[in-house]
Design goal:
By secondary structure, this protein is α/β, with parallel strands linked by helices. It is about 40% helix and about 20% strand. It has a single domain, classed as NagB/RpiA/CoA transferase-like (Rossmann fold). Bound molecules: iron/sulfur cluster (SF4).
Length: about 210
């Protein structure tokens, strides 16, 4: 959405609550990070979705430094099998932290995943899920959310990873080509319409800054 007003934020917080999720707003990423550190006890088992937002706010390092057991499949040096193993641990973690690719005005979370570890842990496994998202992820509706993922989120992720996909390599047109390549990261789409029954606490922390993509 082009303009995010205080009324937009109130509306999204309200619709998320109606959808049986806890929703809170913080103006800055620093405040949101403090809130997450307050909610997660030391020595907890915490999994993370693949998320630029989480890296930008530095929450993984902060939790690890404090002594929490972190399951981060983006950790450098992990083999393919190692990443797979970490993904399974994420599903058994006490807390799962992630962002979302899009958040609609009527309180739905839309995500597109490649391997599925992020979207599965958002809906089953961990008892507590915390989604941290910047206001740049707010979209009008499902249609706009799905379009945002194909125009912004997925291409920028492919470009970050230097994937051999047209959205990362075709310098004349770095948008989605609906590719059929083995490197395609758009493989699973989920829409969370209400808190999944298996998740005891589902919290969305909305931050009044642009975070991730
Ligand atoms: S479908 Fe292919 S080209 Fe389109 S965003 Fe996904 S990976 Fe990129």
């Amino acid at each position: 959405m082009n303009t995010i007003t205080p009324e937009t934020i109130d509306k999204v917080i309200g619709t998320l609550k109606k959808n049986e999720m806890e929703a809170v707003f913080f103006q800055t990423a620093a405040e949101a990070k403090e809130e997450i550190l307050r909610r997660i006890p030391p020595r907890a088992k915490v999994g993370f979705g693949g998320s630029v937002t989480l890296r930008e706010i530095g929450i993984i390092e902060a939790l690890e430094k404090r002594g929490d057991e972190v399951y981060d499949h983006w950790k450098e040096g992990l083999s393919k099998e190692g990443r797979q193993e970490v993904g399974k641990k994420q599903q058994r973690a006490e807390f799962f932290l992630t962002s979302t690719n899009a958040l609609t005005l009527d309180g739905k979370l839309i995500n597109v995943d490649a391997s599925g570890n992020r979207v599965t842990s958002m809906i089953f496994g961990p008892e507590r899920v915390i989604v941290i998202t910047g206001i740049n992820k707010i979209v009008k509706n499902l249609k706009e959310g799905l379009a945002r993922i194909k125009k912004v989120a997925a291409p920028r992720n492919c470009q970050r990873r230097k994937d051999p996909t047209p959205c990362a390599q075709d310098l004349k047109d770095l948008t989605c080509h609906n590719c059929k390549t083995p490197a395609r990261i758009c493989r699973v789409t989920t829409i969370i319409e209400r808190r999944p029954w298996g998740i005891r606490d589902f919290t969305v922390i909305l931050v009044g800054e642009e975070l991730g993509y």
